[in-house]
Amino acid sequence: MKAPDIMTPDGRRAWAFIALIGASLTFTCFIAWGLWHLAAHVRETFWLAIAAHVQLFLVIGAFSWVLGRRMLVTASRDGATIDDRDQPGEGQ
Asked: From CA 25, how far away is CA 35, in angstroms rounded?
């Protein structure tokens, strides 16, 4: 298998995708290790789990960005919405 050329736009997207997968695996292992060590400490385990969810949201958002999707996050008194459709003025 030939590695993608980083000098092309598709090659940069491929390498960014590979880097995000590596980062996701690294942080998943880190979180699993941390949870194992904190099993007796409920409060610390809760906050580590919240941090893991935030990290997962950021990585999935980065995957979407690399793959050409743009997320729109809006919040109001009625609640929050996350939309990954094409934004007005983009594409079309």
From this structure: 15
